[in-house]
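Final report, results section. Input specification for complex C-07:
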Amino acid sequence: MDKINHALDEFREMDALAAQDSPIHRMHPLVKLLITLAYILCVVSFHKYQLSALAVMVLFPILMFQLSGIPVRTCFYKLRIVLPLVCAVGLLNPFYDRAPLLQLGNITVSGGVVSMITLMLKGVFALMASFLLIATTPMDSLCAALRKLHVPSLLVTLLLLTYRYVTVMLREVSVMSDAYHLRAPGQKGIHISAWGSFLGQLLLRSMDRAEDLYESMQLRGFRGEFYYAEVPKCTAGAVAFALGCSAFFAAARCWDLPQLLGNLIT
Amino acid sequence: MITFDNVSFSYESGAPVLRGVSFHIAPGEAVGLIGANGAGKSTIMKLLLGLLPCTEGEILVDGVRVEKKTLPQIRRTLGFVLQDSDSQMFMPTVYEDMMFAPRNYGLSKEEAEQKVDAVLAQLGLTELKHRHNHKISGGEKRMAAIATILAMEPKAILMDEPSIALDPCNRRTVINAINGMRMTKLIASHDLDMILDTCSRVLLLSGGQLVADGSADEILRDKALLEANRMELPFCLSGRH
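Structure output:
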């Protein structure tokens, strides 16, 4: 099925993006992981009415996009399914919180509208930061970074194997779906009457395939601890970058930078 | 190198899959394991590798009894090329897949890389090194799967249908690669022409029993024996070409 093959290709494209070369790609994965965590924590900690203070946080993803050479449109294309869901989170706020908060010319903006936009931005920023981390760091390196943070080996291995097995499962779905459609011409999707057996078969096939893969790993010396990728050395530049980012996050969190700038100018 | 001594096996509450199978494979020998579907070929491989528990009889690999506590040692000795290369290759690139076993066995990155390069050069696959597993052809994938096992430097190699679903050219490449290996080989296959090309000895299984054990030339020319066990003469000996 075209859609599934497309999904598989998209999944593999993430590997290809992570394999590119740029200052951000070359940066120690632990540094990138910590910066991203700090960014997300900082973003979600803004108060629901701190819209202008939050807006300045967009500078971090912009900087990362510039330095990594990853096109912004790729990010939004990859996140196209989840972004609307994130944006939908605060949709009801304008109905519950109608107290006027801002006056933009003749337009009165209620607290609900501001909090809705703030929530949307928080979601979008967090997603963009996560995307940038994954798009600039191979999964093996990310797992190596998690191990350096002493995340239990079991969890990290589980994460890595899940990542690997997703493609295996998608491949099975693709084969089964092709077989179905070759014998069900004219049908758009899979008919509801076949869902049960389709999912059951998918589960069984995926389990068989996963078992084969696991046996193959065991036969090649796997003892439960994955050998993770060699990570590059943590350079002074990376540390400086991390410190700079952290300082910016802290400043953006403590002061409303756009307002301060506005006060300076006026 | 490999000894099966009166081994029987059955799955839980099922009919016996193997019944009193005994044979010995000497170091450096190339042995073909043939038989109809369900004859017990894969079960023999799985028992050897400890993927199935040996409940009756004894299996020795390089003088070591196959049991739970010796599995790491057994699996260090034996390399297994699976029938389905997609199940074998799980890392993103050929290089990473080949590095997997040597690094698991404690080799440094440099040592492992040297091994990987040597195996790739030996098989003429150097250009595949950094290719993504999902972007190489079926024939290349089969060769890469063999390469991942050779990078382990096993003392013996087991192969399950190594020539299945390959075009004649890729099939010949795999056969040449097998003939270029100097270690002990046990090859399970229905491709009797390939067995004839690669093995000096054949074990014929039928209904879970070893019904013939002898030179490949002798057994694979025995039309009556093969047909009695749901097989037929190799194409090159059938007089039809």
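The mean pLDDT of chain A is 86. The interface with chain B takes residues 8, 12, 15, 138, 140, 164, 167-168, 171, 209, 212-213, 215-223, 227, 230 of chain A (CB under 8 Å). This concludes the modelling results for the funded period.
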